[in-house]
Design brief:
The chain has about 325 residues and is of the alpha/beta class. About 40% of the residues lie in helices and about 20% in strands. It has twelve helices and 15 strands. α4 packs across α6, α7 packs across α8 and α11 crosses α12.
């Protein structure tokens, strides 16, 4: 029997059933945004999330999620992910907790180190090297976790200082889940130590536009290396950590090999074989994609998958079949 850490794979999978989410962008108006959130909920998705970028077409996260909360009843509401450099951790924790109270305990808080140099430059914010940005996120995650646990926090770090600060209001959830997402080794080690959900992206170097990335971490070998790193760093807490994959594309087709071959041009240097084996690229018939998702859960431990708004209709029947909803 295969094992993850000290736990048999069948026991681990029972602890981490499939979950699926949708990462949405801003639409033409408030009615359309509310309708999208309701549609995602009606299709049985577990999470409705937003990203955090200073670009046209993308709504500010907590405002967008508060509006979605008012339009829905069940679906969880997530940030995927907040740019840590845009907010002090006390404000991040405060806004997340307030939203959790107002929506009845449905928030998942996702944090990242930030990666888009043009956005920093546009607002005059220094774009520090990755080591510094992750170090700042490390302090922030520690502060946020302690505040969300209800502690009075005194903290003396290189980037943040707090003196006997207590969060108000406290979140509705006894433990509001924290997701830390990215692909760098130091960031993933941090996620393994601090997060309830480790968000794997497979994204390599950020390109000049600040939004696109090299797909160097998408292939199965690269994913396996990052997963092994997280498993090693998580240690005894591994059984309680959920693994999340941010899916870049869902293509339902009867000819997955031809489709994968056509994708290699825009996803260089990936091969067609690597594309078909990637948890971040789902290609094939509905049955084939279902089998791939099961394989990714058993091999890598991914039980939680989020797709972008453009793909949520395509994945819906597959996701719902796997979750039984």
């Amino acid at each position: 029997m295969l094992a993850i850490g000290y736990i048999r794979i069948d026991e681990w999978m029972a602890m981490h059933p499939f979950r699926f989410g949708v990462s949405a962008r801003g639409l033409d108006g408030p009615e359309n945004w509310a309708t999208l959130a309701q549609r995602v909920e009606a299709l049985g998705y577990d999470t409705f999330s937003v990203a955090d970028h200073l670009v046209d077409g993308l709504l500010p996260p907590f405002v967008a999620l508060a509006t979605a909360a008012a339009a829905t009843e069940r679906v969880r509401l997530g940030t995927l992910v907040l740019n840590n450099d845009l907010r002090h951790p006390t404000m991040t924790a405060r806004e997340a907790a307030a939203l959790d109270v107002l929506c009845g305990g449905r928030v998942e808080l996702g944090l990242g180190a930030g990666h888009s140099r043009p956005e920093y430059e546009q607002i005059g914010l220094p774009f520090d090297d990755a080591t510094t940005r992750v170090a700042r996120l490390e302090e922030s995650a520690a502060v946020v976790n302690r505040l969300l646990r209800g502690e009075s926090v005194t903290f003396e770090g290189a980037h943040y200082q707090l003196s006997e600060h207590t969060l108000w209001p406290p979140p509705s959830q006894q433990k509001l889940p924290l997701l830390i997402g990215g692909n760098g080794r130091r960031l993933l080690r941090l996620a393994a130590r601090e997060a309830d959900i480790v968000g794997f992206t497979g994204m390599g170097r950020t390109l000049e536009d600040g939004q696109r990335h090299e797909p160097t971490g998408f292939g199965p070998a690269a994913v396996a290396e990052r997963v092994a790193l997280v498993r090693s760093e998580a240690g005894d807490r591994l059984a309680d950590v959920e693994f999340h994959a941010l899916v870049q594309s869902v293509v339902v087709t009867e000819d997955r090999e031809t489709e994968a071959a056509s994708m290699t041009e825009r996803l260089a240097p990936l091969t067609a074989e690597e594309i078909l084996g990637s948890p971040f690229l789902l290609v094939g018939t509905e049955d084939q994609i279902s089998e791939e998702l099961r394989a990714h859960r058993e091999r890598f431990g991914f039980s939680y998958f989020t797709v972008f708004e453009k793909d949520y209709e395509a994945l819906a029947p597959i996701a719902m079949a796997l979750t039984g909803t």
